[in-house]
Design a protein that fits this description.
This is Class F sortase. The chain is mainly β and about 180 residues long. It contains 2 helices and 10 strands, in the order H-E-E-E-E-E-E-E-E-H-E-E. It has one domain: Sortase, Chain: A (Beta Barrel), CATH 2.40.260.
Length: about 180
């Protein structure tokens, strides 16, 4: 049986950062290439589409089943805008999930979203995030930055992922 990462657990409190009255939307739609382009991370061989999603009625990010694309909250910050743009992707125990090697990134690695280039500043593994910790990932304040999220450290006996891998990157000036 295929076991996909439960990224939803990391992003369960997404509505904390949502504007009052945000409408739950369960469907996914592929963001047009002219709007965002694709996600490219040369250091780990990622070249992925970006799918804009809403939230479920329970407030979870409505991440779909594609293991090769990444998901962006459609009401959140776009990559390159002020604040933190969050992209979540699956890691898959049987591979190839888009973020299978996300934990291998190092500070200084390049991440490209459309015409925007970001430099990785921090890679961390966390267990147990509070609602406030999750809400901070979705900030619409401060310098433009990118946050990439997936699951890590799978327990092969239970199929449960014990940690979340969170990569922070800052926007580089346009050339």
């Amino acid at each position: 049986m295929r076991r996909w990462c439960a990224v939803l657990m990391v992003l369960a409190a997404v509505l904390v950062a949502a504007p009052a009255g945000a409408r739950p939307v369960g469907s996914a739609e592929r963001t047009s290439a002219t709007a965002l382009g694709r996600l490219s991370i040369p250091a780990i061989g990622v070249n992925a589409g970006i799918i804009a999603v809403g939230v479920t009625s329970s407030g979870h990010l409505a991440i779909g089943g594609s293991v090769r694309d990444v998901y962006r909250w459609r009401a959140g910050v776009l990559p390159g805008q002020q604040g933190s743009a969050v992209l979540a992707g699956h890691t898959w125990s049987k591979g190839p999930g888009v973020f299978d090697n996300l934990g291998n990134l190092r500070p200084g690695n390049l991440v490209i979203v459309g015409k925007n280039r970001f430099k990785v500043t921090r890679v961390r593994r966390v267990t147990g995030m509070s609602r406030e910790d999750v809400a901070r990932l979705f900030s619409d304040r401060g310098e433009p930055r990118l946050v990439l999220v997936t699951c890590g450290d799978r327990n092969n006996l239970t199929g449960v992922y014990r940690t979340r891998i969170i990569v922070h990157a800052k926007l580089l000036p346009r050339r």
